Amino acid sequence: xxxxxxxxxxxxxxxxxxxxxxxxxxxxxxxxxxxxxxxxxxxxxxxxxxxxxxxxxxxxxxxxxxxxxxxxxxxxxxxxxxxxxxxxxxxxxxxxxxxxxxxxxxxxxxxxxxxxxxxxxxxxxxxxxxxxxxxxxxxxxxxxxxxxxxxxxxxxxxxxxxxxxxxxx
Length: 169
Known about the structure:
By secondary structure, the protein is of the alpha+beta class.
């Protein structure tokens, strides 16, 4: 391949990638959609619609070719300041005990946002601009060890990084 053809191919690929990068910056975190590298898991953020909520983000996690929908919440914590997330499956509605929540929590841990320059920080609140990627450390093994698809069914483990896919404005 000639140098000219290589440059043309590079510009063509850049044209496909750069609009997605710009789209993340133009999207609120509450409307961002992310996918794992294999396209099996998707995080779809939704507005909380409450100024009194303890969480500063919420999302639904879906699994391709499955009816499984997991609920995700991200909350600020202190000392040290971190954003902590929880992914839950089939939690009871209404008042729930700590034991109830423990039983339905699939994963809990820090939630990191990564910007276009690769800078890692806490996930911003829902009214901030969307980050380019989200890191949920060790989400893969937690999902693999779960029964979200049914007892005895193997769950493909996602990578811990979810890349911005689209905005649901």
